[in-house]
């Protein structure tokens, strides 16, 4: 899952959680606030009532008659006020909820009771406010709060996503330009990614530092290979020329001549191993250009002609059938030549006498596929994964007196040209090497 | 013909010298760039065999210097630095040929002969061999006016043997010549034999091919 997705998911989750928690807490909080508010209002009314009583005298409300009392309701019975004499009580204020039966109508009220003494007489002032009226207001407040909460949550989820995307943009740029698009250390771009996020600057800097180390190591290896090649090829050069000079000496006994020829062959083998390794290393180090527009059909034909003598030596027939249009590949022609040469040469080498080779070109969905199929001995399944490894036993089949760098070279060249290579083999029936040239770049 | 061998590797320089002397060249050696520069300035050479990897000199600089001072020697670059751009650069700077180490001395000799043919504008490059006439210029073989059709490889093989006539060429030397830089991993191959067999068959239809001798266990030779 992408970091951006995770952040969005986390944000949404935390917001939903917040709403749930809020909807659990807020109603009781609102109730409490509303109740306090109501109590304050009742207190105000009580003070108002007392002021009126002080001004016009309590007797206006209640006669000196001990049983009389005063009561006043508003029309919808949302509020009431009563005053009545009581027995001796300590003066105090009490708030509570209670039901009152007023004119045969039971209504729940929030009530303030005020006990006080006036001219030796104890009174109780009771002020009530209908809870129905209060609760109606609560419900409205609650739904208002809920709507506000949800809309804030929704809006912030979107702004969070937008912001996360904005903030993570440099990360994507770092991954694209510094990691994904880098196919070879030599092509690495050291330009810093512009970002105000310190973590990304740090990441960018670290990648650059790492790449500098890798580049240095590559450069070292390239230099090393070049030096090794020089150091090894020079003595081989001396030996080869010395053998040639000895061979041309007159009166050289025949048995020594034959030994010398054997030595020449051994030396040639050594030379080819070194040159093959050097070639692989040079390709891997990107020391070849890919600028030749190569007609693959013409190329394969040329290889087939070049290799004619080998076919003849084993009396092997070669058939070619390439569906047109055969792609024109922008690559390194000599290398591609070597690749096909090695493949077809292999098909001859491991073919049986009087066998055949079939080269087939097919346009498939993934690209243009070229199969090189032989009727040889085949390769055991367990040896297939090892086939392209340098100096592996599998690439050195059937005690052929060689170090079999042919296939590793094929693979290196294929990889260099983004060509996929696959092998299918059946013991006793033959082997097919398939080259897939993906999305051929047609060049007019 | 005067040849200057510019090669810091003494062993290699000595082998090249031995070989060229036997081929009746007059040879001179230089082991450093400075020495070579001095000798090129003072002496007249027909050929300069130039190693690119000199300890004190960049081989290309030596070539540039010599060309600037008007030396008309033919330069053949010898190098172990087998890089494509080296070859292109060398030829662009006026070198006449380029050989990657290790190379065969016979290959070197045939390149030198080819340069000579070009340089002195040899008009008739026709060589007579028994009943046959071989035209190097037209890459054609004929017998009493009748053309003999040879493949490219067969022709290369014939002319290489002819160039080094009266000398036994081993199968390996012939293979290296006609396969050039292909990295071969078949050492006991008899592909050369296939070509020789075809040569004998094709030419045999027109005349005698007794001049082509098989030297048992070693290789082939043209006696002329």
From TrEMBL, chain A:
Lineage, broadest ranks: Bacteria, Pseudomonadati, Bacteroidota, Cytophagia, Cytophagales
CDD domains (alphabetical): HATPase, HisKA
Gene3D superfamilies: 1.10.287.130, Histidine kinase-like ATPase, C-terminal domain
EC number(s) on file: 2.7.13.3
Protein name stated in the entry: histidine kinase
GO MF assignments: phosphorelay sensor kinase activity
Reactions it catalyzes: ATP + protein L-histidine = ADP + protein N-phospho-L-histidine
SMART domains: HATPase_c (SM00387), HisKA (SM00388)
Entry-linked InterPro entries: HATPase_C_sf, HATPase_dom, His_kinase_dom, HisK_dim/P_dom, HisK_dim/P_sf, Sig_transdc_His_kin-like_C, TCS_sensor_his_kinase
From TrEMBL, chain B:
Domain Response regulatory: 2-116
Residue ranges of the annotated DNA-binding region, renumbered to this chain: 124-224
GO cellular component, one term: cytosol
Gene3D superfamilies in UniProt: 3.40.50.2300, 6.10.250.690, Winged helix-like DNA-binding domain superfamily/Winged helix DNA-binding domain
UniProt entry tagged with the keyword RNA-binding: no
SUPFAM superfamilies: CheY-like (SSF52172)
Keyword Iron part of the UniProt annotation: no
Modification sites for 4-aspartylphosphate: 51
Biological processes, Gene Ontology terms: regulation of DNA-templated transcription
Keyword terms: DNA-binding, Phosphoprotein, Transcription, Transcription regulation, Two-component regulatory system
Record's protein name: Response regulator transcription factor
